[in-house]
Amino acid sequence: AKADKPETKEAEEVTAPAASKDSAAMMELVPASATDANADIQPVVASGDLWRPVISELQALGEEHTQGDMSWIYIFVTGFLGGLLALFTPCVWPIIPMTVSFFLKRSKDKKKGIRDAWTYGASIVVIYVALGLAITLIFGASALNALSTNAVFNILFFLMLVIFAASFFGAFEIRLPSKWGNAVDSKAESTTGLLSIFLMAFTLSLVSFSCTGPIIGFLLVQVSTTGSVVAPAIGMLGFAIALALPFTLFALFPSWLKSMPKSGGWMNVIKVTLGFLELAFALKFLSVADLAYGWRLLDRETFLALWIVIFALLGFYLLGKIKFPHDDDDNKVGVTRFFMALISLAFAVYMVPGLWGAPLKAVSAFAPPMHTQDFNLYKNEVHAKFDDYDLGMEYARLNGKPVMLDFTGYGCVNCRKMEAAVWTDPKVSDLINNDYVLITLYVDNKTPLTEPVKIVENGKERTLRTVGDKWSYLQRVKFGANAQPFYVLLDNQGSPLNKSYAYDEDIPKYIEFLQTGLENYRKEK
């Protein structure tokens, strides 16, 4: 009540005829005006005030700015696992003993041979990290973030991963021009010292591209869409360390070379398995474009049906029931392959109930949201009452309820995890459905605004063209945040009732977050 006077003044400035360019933009952003609001008998906060920044209020409530889509550790580990997978492919594994033996034999001094092998490993790291940095420098961090929901790029990513999968299945090999490798190789032979070793490492990266290329491509696509400047470099650092590790370890402990598994058909099994996985993840990128633009081509049940078929076929392949061009004719299935087949087939069966609406927490991060499902027998769900901030706030005011704002994205993996792991809890769903007005705002919604809106942010003029641009702007200017998921509880005047909540699957903590907001709202009343 104390803030009524200054808030009314601010609203008048927004709707005044001589308003500034920023104020005019704000007036376009919000449908209701102060005049309309004051005409109401009840005391109403003008919609201009609903957009006023509350960053300092959130900080006073104990706001923590530690959220992000992907932590650097997660990105590094993802890259490292990709590097380990690349090691066990036919293009890399057979090269390891040859290279290590070369370094140990070319120098009579064993220490020098080991030092050369370390230099070789370090050169691999430098080459791939440079690739990661180049991706960021070419596209720019903000452009990479925009790629995450851009239809054209998501469809290109989808097609690229399908092509990579086909190459792993044996349809063809993706190779860089052989003259590149030959040129670098001849340079390595004609030079000495560190440059020679670096060029040898560069030759490895060119020669092994048919196997490492699809894995690197997948990793870069995954981490580039985080919008972080250093994400591609960190991903490539993890990849390169995993790839370089055996060269240095085997140089330090040459006796281990004898215990290395020999090259054989098992490496092609790994390649084909990776092909199935790339095919499955390709659908994720198609799904993001489909959701952001509202095409409804790949709804949840269609997506799940395709995944069920992909993982069932992978299971049958691992059992030896399906053969690809480069597979050998050995009919025996090893114990490892059997257990991998068991996991893949069990995963396919696990997804079947999802066709009728089961939450499927294990795949919630990748599958489209539940609301895209046409046939749904599962009832314990949370549905947003509104997808428009101003309309939702007006409804909450008229019904005397607090608001829960859910800033999310169609391409947001952690948002889907929260919805499947936390919102499905009976206590959480009861609180959100019955005690709050849930307003879900998709920051990557590509629906065009009726008219583009010009705003000035941080001294720069920008144009909001889509509904997603509008909600992203609201999140930045009002709450000082830009990552999703982002949950904030508000009263009818747009003031926070509790500190915000980011990605954290701790259900008791989330319940406490909701209950504290409710208690603070009742105290205000």
CATH class of the largest domain: Alpha Beta
When the domains are counted, the total is: 2
Structure classification? mainly alpha
Distance between the termini: 10 Å
| Beta-strand content estimate | 5-15%
Biggest sheet strand order reads 2-1-5
Question: How would you describe the overall organization of this protein?
Answer:
The protein has 525 residues and is mainly α. It folds into 2 domains: 4-67 and 381-524, 3-Layer(aba) Sandwich (Glutaredoxin); 72-265, no CATH class. The protein contains 22 helices and 5 strands. It has a 3-stranded mixed beta sheet, sandwiched between helices. It has a two-stranded antiparallel ribbon with strand order 3-4. A hairpin with a 2-residue loop joins strand 3 (448-457) and strand 4 (460-466).
Entry keywords:
525 residues, mainly alpha, Glutaredoxin, 2 domains, three-stranded mixed β-sheet, two-stranded antiparallel ribbon, 22 helices, 59% helix, 6% strand
Could you provide a short overview of the structure?
This protein has 525 residues and is mainly α.
Give the arrangement of secondary structure elements:
Blueprint: H1 4-15, H2 21-29, H3 34-39, H4 47-50, H5 55-60, H6 72-87, H7 95-106, H8 110-139, H9 141-147, H10 151-169, H11 178-190, H12 193-207, H13 209-224, H14 231-252, H15 265-292, H16 300-318, H17 335-351, H18 389-399, E1 403-408, H19 413-421, H20 426-435, E2 437-442, E3 448-457, E4 460-466, H21 467-479, E5 486-490, H22 507-524
Parallel strand pairs: 1-2
Antiparallel strand pairs: 1-5, 3-4
Helix pairs in contact: 6-13, 6-14, 7-8, 7-14, 8-12, 8-14, 10-13, 10-15, 11-12, 13-14, 15-16, 16-17, 20-22
